[in-house]
Amino acid sequence: MAKNPPEDQNPATRLVTGGRRSEWTGPVVNPPVWRASTHLYEDSAAQQAGLHVNQDGVFHYGARGGPTQWALADALTALEPGAAGTMLYPTGLAAPIMALLAVLKAGDELLVSDNSYDPSRTFAERALRDYGITTRFFDPLDVEGFAHLITDKCRVVLLENPGSVSLEMCDVPALAAAAKARGLVVLLDNTWAGPTGFQALKHGVDLSILALTKHVGGHSDLMLGSVTANAEWYPRLRRHSLMLGQQASPDDCALALRGLRTMGVRLERSCASALQIAEWLQSRPEVAAVLFPMLPGAPGHELWKRDFTGGCGLMTLVMAGKDLRARDALIDALSLFGIGYSWGGFESLALGSHPERDRAIMPWPPRGIAPENRHAVRLWIGLEDPADLIADLERGLAAWAAA
Ligand SMILES: *Cc1c(COP(=O)(O)O)cnc(C)c1O
Protein backbone atom coordinates (compact mmCIF):
# COMPACT_ATOMS: atom_id res chain seq x y z
CA MET A 1 0.00 0.00 0.00
CA ALA A 2 1.43 3.32 -1.01
CA LYS A 3 0.45 5.04 2.20
CA ASN A 4 2.54 6.01 5.18
CA PRO A 5 1.18 6.12 8.72
CA PRO A 6 1.01 9.37 10.65
CA GLU A 7 4.51 10.18 11.85
CA ASP A 8 3.36 10.59 15.45
CA GLN A 9 2.70 6.89 16.09
CA ASN A 10 5.40 4.96 17.91
CA PRO A 11 6.29 1.48 16.65
CA ALA A 12 4.46 -0.31 19.48
CA THR A 13 1.28 1.52 18.46
CA ARG A 14 1.81 0.84 14.77
CA LEU A 15 2.05 -2.89 15.53
CA VAL A 16 -1.52 -2.61 16.83
CA THR A 17 -3.02 -0.20 14.28
CA GLY A 18 -1.24 -1.17 11.04
CA GLY A 19 -3.35 -2.52 8.17
CA ARG A 20 -6.66 -2.31 10.03
CA ARG A 21 -8.51 -0.21 7.48
CA SER A 22 -12.27 -0.41 7.85
CA GLU A 23 -12.73 -1.27 4.16
CA TRP A 24 -10.73 -4.45 4.82
CA THR A 25 -11.84 -5.35 8.35
CA GLY A 26 -15.52 -4.42 8.15
CA PRO A 27 -16.93 -4.16 11.67
CA VAL A 28 -14.54 -6.74 13.20
CA VAL A 29 -11.03 -6.23 14.59
CA ASN A 30 -9.00 -8.42 12.22
CA PRO A 31 -9.28 -8.47 8.44
CA PRO A 32 -11.14 -11.68 7.56
CA VAL A 33 -9.35 -14.38 5.59
CA TRP A 34 -10.37 -13.35 2.12
CA ARG A 35 -9.81 -16.46 -0.02
CA ALA A 36 -10.24 -15.61 -3.65
CA SER A 37 -9.10 -16.22 -7.17
CA THR A 38 -12.01 -14.97 -9.26
CA HIS A 39 -13.59 -11.54 -9.02
CA LEU A 40 -17.17 -11.56 -10.29
CA TYR A 41 -18.22 -8.39 -12.10
CA GLU A 42 -21.69 -6.88 -12.45
CA ASP A 43 -21.48 -6.77 -16.24
CA SER A 44 -19.02 -6.74 -19.13
CA ALA A 45 -18.49 -3.01 -18.90
CA ALA A 46 -17.41 -3.33 -15.24
CA GLN A 47 -15.08 -6.23 -16.13
CA GLN A 48 -13.49 -4.25 -18.95
CA ALA A 49 -13.03 -1.20 -16.72
CA GLY A 50 -11.47 -3.46 -14.08
CA LEU A 51 -8.78 -4.62 -16.53
CA HIS A 52 -7.28 -1.16 -16.56
CA VAL A 53 -7.05 -0.88 -12.81
CA ASN A 54 -3.83 -2.34 -11.52
CA GLN A 55 -3.14 -1.01 -8.08
CA ASP A 56 -2.94 -2.24 -4.51
CA GLY A 57 -6.31 -2.17 -2.84
CA VAL A 58 -8.35 -2.76 -6.02
CA PHE A 59 -9.42 -6.38 -6.35
CA HIS A 60 -8.96 -7.75 -9.84
CA TYR A 61 -7.72 -11.34 -9.55
CA GLY A 62 -6.32 -13.43 -6.68
CA ALA A 63 -2.80 -13.35 -8.10
CA ARG A 64 -2.63 -9.67 -7.21
CA GLY A 65 -3.72 -10.33 -3.64
CA GLY A 66 -6.82 -9.30 -1.73
CA PRO A 67 -7.68 -7.48 1.49
CA THR A 68 -5.95 -9.99 3.81
CA GLN A 69 -2.64 -9.69 1.96
CA TRP A 70 -2.99 -5.91 1.58
CA ALA A 71 -3.63 -5.52 5.31
CA LEU A 72 -0.38 -7.37 6.17
CA ALA A 73 1.59 -5.47 3.53
CA ASP A 74 0.13 -2.19 4.76
CA ALA A 75 1.01 -2.99 8.38
CA LEU A 76 4.62 -3.80 7.40
CA THR A 77 4.89 -0.60 5.35
CA ALA A 78 3.60 1.39 8.34
CA LEU A 79 6.44 -0.01 10.47
CA GLU A 80 9.18 1.16 8.08
CA PRO A 81 9.59 4.96 7.97
CA GLY A 82 10.36 6.09 4.42
CA ALA A 83 8.60 3.11 2.82
CA ALA A 84 6.26 3.35 -0.17
CA GLY A 85 5.01 -0.24 -0.13
CA THR A 86 5.55 -3.90 0.69
CA MET A 87 5.36 -7.07 -1.42
CA LEU A 88 4.70 -10.49 0.12
CA TYR A 89 6.17 -13.86 -0.87
CA PRO A 90 5.44 -17.50 -0.04
CA THR A 91 8.75 -18.02 1.83
CA GLY A 92 11.37 -15.83 3.44
CA LEU A 93 13.92 -16.99 0.87
CA ALA A 94 11.73 -15.79 -2.01
CA ALA A 95 12.02 -12.25 -0.60
CA PRO A 96 15.76 -11.63 -1.29
CA ILE A 97 15.41 -13.55 -4.55
CA MET A 98 12.58 -11.35 -5.81
CA ALA A 99 14.29 -8.17 -4.61
CA LEU A 100 17.44 -9.15 -6.53
CA LEU A 101 15.50 -10.08 -9.67
CA ALA A 102 13.68 -6.74 -9.57
CA VAL A 103 16.86 -4.65 -9.55
CA LEU A 104 19.40 -6.69 -11.61
CA LYS A 105 19.79 -7.29 -15.31
CA ALA A 106 22.14 -9.40 -17.44
CA GLY A 107 25.69 -8.05 -17.43
CA ASP A 108 25.40 -6.49 -13.96
CA GLU A 109 27.69 -7.24 -11.05
CA LEU A 110 26.27 -7.94 -7.60
CA LEU A 111 28.15 -7.51 -4.32
CA VAL A 112 27.00 -9.77 -1.47
CA SER A 113 28.22 -9.55 2.12
CA ASP A 114 30.18 -12.70 2.94
CA ASN A 115 28.15 -13.49 6.07
CA SER A 116 24.80 -13.59 4.25
CA TYR A 117 22.12 -16.26 4.74
CA ASP A 118 23.54 -19.22 2.83
CA PRO A 119 20.56 -19.92 0.50
CA SER A 120 20.71 -16.24 -0.59
CA ARG A 121 24.41 -16.77 -1.40
CA THR A 122 23.65 -19.95 -3.32
CA PHE A 123 20.96 -18.20 -5.38
CA ALA A 124 23.36 -15.37 -6.24
CA GLU A 125 26.27 -17.68 -7.08
CA ARG A 126 24.38 -20.28 -9.08
CA ALA A 127 21.02 -19.06 -10.42
CA LEU A 128 22.08 -15.48 -11.11
CA ARG A 129 25.23 -16.69 -12.88
CA ASP A 130 22.95 -18.49 -15.36
CA TYR A 131 21.21 -15.15 -15.98
CA GLY A 132 24.51 -13.46 -16.81
CA ILE A 133 25.00 -11.72 -13.47
CA THR A 134 28.34 -11.94 -11.65
CA THR A 135 28.43 -12.13 -7.86
CA ARG A 136 31.37 -11.12 -5.69
CA PHE A 137 31.48 -11.52 -1.92
CA PHE A 138 32.97 -8.92 0.39
CA ASP A 139 33.77 -8.47 4.07
CA PRO A 140 31.11 -6.00 5.35
CA LEU A 141 33.35 -5.07 8.31
CA ASP A 142 35.83 -3.48 5.86
CA VAL A 143 34.06 -0.37 4.51
CA GLU A 144 37.13 0.94 2.69
CA GLY A 145 37.78 -2.43 1.03
CA PHE A 146 34.14 -2.50 -0.05
CA ALA A 147 34.38 0.94 -1.68
CA HIS A 148 37.42 -0.24 -3.68
CA LEU A 149 35.55 -3.31 -4.96
CA ILE A 150 32.88 -1.26 -6.73
CA THR A 151 33.33 -1.29 -10.51
CA ASP A 152 31.30 0.45 -13.20
CA LYS A 153 29.38 -2.79 -13.75
CA CYS A 154 28.28 -3.02 -10.10
CA ARG A 155 24.61 -2.35 -9.78
CA VAL A 156 23.47 -3.80 -6.46
CA VAL A 157 24.74 -4.61 -2.97
CA LEU A 158 23.03 -7.16 -0.73
CA LEU A 159 23.70 -6.69 2.99
CA GLU A 160 22.56 -8.61 6.03
CA ASN A 161 22.95 -7.15 9.50
CA PRO A 162 23.92 -8.78 11.75
CA GLY A 163 25.38 -11.58 9.60
CA SER A 164 23.73 -14.99 9.50
CA VAL A 165 24.89 -17.28 12.35
CA SER A 166 28.13 -15.34 13.00
CA LEU A 167 26.14 -12.16 13.84
CA GLU A 168 28.84 -9.60 12.99
CA MET A 169 27.50 -6.04 12.99
CA CYS A 170 28.42 -3.91 10.00
CA ASP A 171 28.16 -0.14 9.56
CA VAL A 172 25.10 0.00 7.31
CA PRO A 173 25.02 3.82 6.88
CA ALA A 174 28.72 3.86 5.87
CA LEU A 175 28.38 0.94 3.44
CA ALA A 176 25.17 2.42 1.99
CA ALA A 177 26.85 5.81 1.52
CA ALA A 178 29.81 4.20 -0.30
CA ALA A 179 27.37 2.23 -2.46
CA LYS A 180 25.16 5.24 -3.24
CA ALA A 181 28.21 7.32 -4.20
CA ARG A 182 28.66 4.85 -7.09
CA GLY A 183 24.96 4.58 -7.96
CA LEU A 184 24.31 1.14 -6.43
CA VAL A 185 20.94 -0.04 -5.13
CA VAL A 186 21.16 -1.12 -1.47
CA LEU A 187 19.31 -4.27 -0.31
CA LEU A 188 19.34 -5.41 3.31
CA ASP A 189 18.08 -8.63 4.87
CA ASN A 190 16.69 -7.20 8.14
CA THR A 191 15.24 -10.45 9.51
CA TRP A 192 17.21 -10.47 12.81
CA ALA A 193 16.06 -7.10 14.19
CA GLY A 194 13.03 -6.47 11.98
CA PRO A 195 11.58 -3.01 11.39
CA THR A 196 11.00 -2.29 15.09
CA GLY A 197 14.66 -2.98 15.89
CA PHE A 198 16.33 -1.36 12.89
CA GLN A 199 14.86 1.29 10.57
CA ALA A 200 16.56 0.09 7.40
CA LEU A 201 15.33 2.74 4.97
CA LYS A 202 16.29 5.57 7.34
CA HIS A 203 19.83 4.12 7.39
CA GLY A 204 20.32 4.27 3.60
CA VAL A 205 18.68 1.01 2.46
CA ASP A 206 16.40 1.01 -0.62
CA LEU A 207 14.76 -2.42 -0.22
CA SER A 208 14.39 -4.08 3.18
CA ILE A 209 13.92 -7.85 3.28
CA LEU A 210 12.22 -9.90 6.02
CA ALA A 211 11.64 -13.60 6.55
CA LEU A 212 8.20 -13.26 8.19
CA THR A 213 8.52 -16.99 8.99
CA LYS A 214 10.64 -15.89 11.97
CA HIS A 215 9.31 -13.52 14.65
CA VAL A 216 6.49 -11.91 12.68
CA GLY A 217 4.79 -15.31 12.34
CA GLY A 218 6.22 -16.07 15.75
CA HIS A 219 4.58 -19.47 16.28
CA SER A 220 6.57 -21.81 14.01
CA ASP A 221 3.55 -22.55 11.85
CA LEU A 222 3.93 -20.57 8.64
CA MET A 223 6.33 -19.64 5.83
CA LEU A 224 6.25 -16.08 4.46
CA GLY A 225 8.56 -13.30 3.30
CA SER A 226 8.35 -9.61 2.49
CA VAL A 227 10.24 -6.80 0.82
CA THR A 228 9.50 -3.19 1.82
CA ALA A 229 10.79 -0.56 -0.60
CA ASN A 230 11.12 3.19 -0.91
CA ALA A 231 9.21 5.22 -3.51
CA GLU A 232 12.05 4.91 -6.02
CA TRP A 233 11.93 1.09 -6.07
CA TYR A 234 8.48 -0.03 -4.93
CA PRO A 235 6.74 0.30 -8.34
CA ARG A 236 9.43 -1.79 -10.05
CA LEU A 237 9.49 -4.37 -7.23
CA ARG A 238 5.71 -4.72 -7.45
CA ARG A 239 5.68 -4.99 -11.25
CA HIS A 240 8.41 -7.64 -11.31
CA SER A 241 6.98 -9.66 -8.44
CA LEU A 242 3.55 -9.83 -10.07
CA MET A 243 5.10 -10.57 -13.47
CA LEU A 244 6.94 -13.50 -11.88
CA GLY A 245 3.73 -14.81 -10.35
CA GLN A 246 4.47 -14.09 -6.69
CA GLN A 247 1.69 -13.98 -4.13
CA ALA A 248 1.20 -15.18 -0.54
CA SER A 249 -1.64 -17.28 0.85
CA PRO A 250 -4.35 -15.26 2.64
CA ASP A 251 -4.45 -17.88 5.43
CA ASP A 252 -0.73 -17.43 6.14
CA CYS A 253 -1.08 -13.64 5.92
CA ALA A 254 -3.88 -13.69 8.51
CA LEU A 255 -1.65 -15.75 10.85
CA ALA A 256 1.25 -13.36 10.25
CA LEU A 257 -0.98 -10.35 11.03
CA ARG A 258 -2.02 -12.01 14.28
CA GLY A 259 1.67 -12.64 15.04
CA LEU A 260 2.56 -9.03 14.29
CA ARG A 261 0.13 -7.71 16.92
CA THR A 262 2.08 -9.43 19.72
CA MET A 263 5.54 -9.26 18.14
CA GLY A 264 6.60 -6.28 20.26
CA VAL A 265 5.99 -7.96 23.61
CA ARG A 266 7.33 -11.31 22.38
CA LEU A 267 10.55 -9.69 21.20
CA GLU A 268 10.93 -7.75 24.44
CA ARG A 269 10.66 -10.96 26.43
CA SER A 270 12.93 -12.91 24.08
CA CYS A 271 15.59 -10.14 24.16
CA ALA A 272 15.48 -9.76 27.96
CA SER A 273 15.83 -13.53 28.47
CA ALA A 274 18.54 -13.77 25.80
CA LEU A 275 20.56 -11.01 27.46
CA GLN A 276 20.34 -12.72 30.82
CA ILE A 277 21.32 -16.07 29.29
CA ALA A 278 24.13 -14.51 27.22
CA GLU A 279 25.61 -12.85 30.31
CA TRP A 280 25.53 -16.17 32.16
CA LEU A 281 27.08 -18.04 29.21
CA GLN A 282 29.81 -15.42 28.85
CA SER A 283 30.98 -16.23 32.38
CA ARG A 284 31.27 -19.96 31.66
CA PRO A 285 34.68 -21.53 30.91
CA GLU A 286 33.11 -23.97 28.38
CA VAL A 287 32.16 -21.02 26.15
CA ALA A 288 34.92 -19.11 24.32
CA ALA A 289 32.63 -16.39 22.93
CA VAL A 290 28.99 -15.38 22.86
CA LEU A 291 28.16 -13.79 19.51
CA PHE A 292 25.20 -11.58 20.37
CA PRO A 293 25.43 -7.87 19.49
CA MET A 294 22.98 -6.80 22.21
CA LEU A 295 25.39 -8.06 24.88
CA PRO A 296 27.68 -5.31 26.27
CA GLY A 297 31.26 -6.16 25.32
CA ALA A 298 30.24 -8.58 22.54
CA PRO A 299 31.50 -7.97 18.98
CA GLY A 300 29.44 -5.26 17.28
CA HIS A 301 27.77 -3.99 20.45
CA GLU A 302 28.81 -0.37 19.87
CA LEU A 303 27.30 -0.33 16.35
CA TRP A 304 24.18 -2.01 17.68
CA LYS A 305 23.84 0.69 20.32
CA ARG A 306 24.34 3.43 17.73
CA ASP A 307 21.92 2.19 15.06
CA PHE A 308 19.39 -0.20 16.63
CA THR A 309 16.39 0.15 18.91
CA GLY A 310 15.94 -3.60 19.39
CA GLY A 311 16.93 -7.05 18.25
CA CYS A 312 15.90 -10.61 18.94
CA GLY A 313 16.93 -13.60 20.99
CA LEU A 314 19.14 -15.27 18.37
CA MET A 315 22.78 -15.82 19.39
CA THR A 316 25.67 -18.11 18.57
CA LEU A 317 28.05 -19.71 21.07
CA VAL A 318 31.62 -20.50 20.10
CA MET A 319 32.67 -23.40 22.31
CA ALA A 320 36.10 -23.44 23.98
CA GLY A 321 38.04 -26.07 22.01
CA LYS A 322 36.99 -29.75 22.05
CA ASP A 323 35.30 -31.33 19.04
CA LEU A 324 32.00 -31.78 17.22
CA ARG A 325 31.16 -34.81 19.36
CA ALA A 326 31.22 -32.61 22.48
CA ARG A 327 29.26 -29.90 20.69
CA ASP A 328 26.56 -32.42 19.73
CA ALA A 329 26.52 -33.89 23.27
CA LEU A 330 25.68 -30.41 24.55
CA ILE A 331 22.78 -30.03 22.14
CA ASP A 332 21.47 -33.56 22.71
CA ALA A 333 21.46 -33.06 26.50
CA LEU A 334 19.04 -30.13 26.25
CA SER A 335 15.39 -30.87 26.87
CA LEU A 336 13.73 -27.45 26.61
CA PHE A 337 15.61 -26.43 23.46
CA GLY A 338 14.30 -28.23 20.38
CA ILE A 339 16.79 -29.20 17.66
CA GLY A 340 15.59 -27.60 14.47
CA TYR A 341 15.97 -25.05 11.71
CA SER A 342 14.44 -21.62 11.63
CA TRP A 343 13.82 -19.50 14.74
CA GLY A 344 11.56 -16.68 15.93
CA GLY A 345 8.87 -18.91 17.42
CA PHE A 346 7.65 -18.95 21.04
CA GLU A 347 9.81 -22.01 21.77
CA SER A 348 13.58 -22.17 22.21
CA LEU A 349 15.82 -23.95 19.71
CA ALA A 350 19.44 -25.10 19.55
CA LEU A 351 21.35 -26.08 16.42
CA GLY A 352 24.93 -27.00 15.56
CA SER A 353 26.21 -24.51 12.98
CA HIS A 354 29.11 -24.47 10.52
CA PRO A 355 29.69 -20.84 9.50
CA GLU A 356 33.01 -21.77 7.86
CA ARG A 357 31.08 -23.62 5.13
CA ASP A 358 29.08 -20.56 4.10
CA ARG A 359 31.74 -17.90 3.63
CA ALA A 360 34.39 -17.21 1.02
CA ILE A 361 36.64 -14.59 2.61
CA MET A 362 35.66 -13.78 6.20
CA PRO A 363 37.57 -15.81 8.79
CA TRP A 364 35.98 -18.41 11.06
CA PRO A 365 36.32 -18.29 14.00
CA PRO A 366 35.94 -14.49 13.84
CA ARG A 367 38.96 -12.25 14.42
CA GLY A 368 39.96 -12.12 18.07
CA ILE A 369 38.94 -15.74 18.82
CA ALA A 370 41.69 -18.40 18.95
CA PRO A 371 41.53 -20.90 16.04
CA GLU A 372 40.96 -23.94 18.30
CA ASN A 373 37.66 -22.38 19.43
CA ARG A 374 35.52 -23.02 16.37
CA HIS A 375 32.55 -25.26 17.10
CA ALA A 376 29.34 -23.29 17.08
CA VAL A 377 25.90 -23.68 18.63
CA ARG A 378 23.12 -21.38 17.53
CA LEU A 379 20.51 -20.64 20.18
CA TRP A 380 17.08 -19.15 19.72
CA ILE A 381 15.68 -17.98 23.04
CA GLY A 382 11.93 -18.32 23.19
CA LEU A 383 9.36 -17.35 25.81
CA GLU A 384 10.07 -19.98 28.49
CA ASP A 385 11.20 -18.83 31.94
CA PRO A 386 14.89 -17.92 31.50
CA ALA A 387 15.78 -19.67 34.77
CA ASP A 388 14.51 -22.95 33.29
CA LEU A 389 16.49 -22.34 30.09
CA ILE A 390 19.66 -21.66 32.11
CA ALA A 391 19.11 -24.88 34.08
CA ASP A 392 18.74 -26.74 30.77
CA LEU A 393 21.93 -25.17 29.37
CA GLU A 394 23.73 -26.08 32.61
CA ARG A 395 22.92 -29.75 31.83
CA GLY A 396 24.13 -29.22 28.26
CA LEU A 397 27.46 -27.75 29.40
CA ALA A 398 27.95 -30.67 31.81
CA ALA A 399 27.43 -33.10 28.92
CA TRP A 400 29.92 -31.09 26.81
CA ALA A 401 32.51 -31.25 29.62
CA ALA A 402 31.98 -35.00 30.04
CA ALA A 403 32.22 -35.78 26.31
C1 LIG B 1 15.25 -17.75 7.68
C2 LIG B 1 15.86 -16.66 6.90
C3 LIG B 1 15.50 -16.46 5.56
C4 LIG B 1 14.58 -17.37 4.82
O1 LIG B 1 13.33 -17.52 5.37
P1 LIG B 1 12.44 -18.84 5.10
O2 LIG B 1 11.08 -18.39 5.41
O3 LIG B 1 12.97 -19.89 6.02
O4 LIG B 1 12.60 -19.19 3.65
C5 LIG B 1 16.07 -15.39 4.90
N1 LIG B 1 16.95 -14.57 5.50
C6 LIG B 1 17.32 -14.76 6.77
C7 LIG B 1 18.30 -13.83 7.39
C8 LIG B 1 16.79 -15.80 7.51
O5 LIG B 1 17.18 -15.98 8.78
Summarize the structure.
The chain is of the alpha/beta class. It is 38% helix and 15% strand.
Describe this structure in words.
The chain is α/β, with parallel strands linked by helices. It has a domain at 261-402: Alpha-Beta Complex (Aspartate Aminotransferase, domain 1), CATH 3.90.1150.10. Helices cover 38% and strands 15% of the residues. It is built from 14 helices and 12 strands. The chain has helices spanning 11-17, 22-25, 44-51, 67-78, 94-103, 118-130, 143-149, 172-181, 194-197, 234-243, 250-282, 301-307, 324-333, 386-402, and strands at 85-89, 109-113, 134-138, 154-160, 185-189, 207-211, 225-229, 287-291, 314-319, 338-339, 349-353, 376-380. The strands form 2 sheets. A 7-stranded mixed beta sheet has the order 1-7-6-5-4-2-3, sandwiched between helices. Helix 4 packs parallel to helix 11 and helix 13 (324-333) packs antiparallel against helix 14. It starts with 10 loop residues before the first helix and ends with a helix. The chain binds pyridoxal-5'-phosphate. Pyridoxal-5'-phosphate binds next to loops. Residues 91-93, 117, 160, 164, 189, 191, 211, 213-214, 223, 225, 342 line the site of pyridoxal-5'-phosphate (PLP).
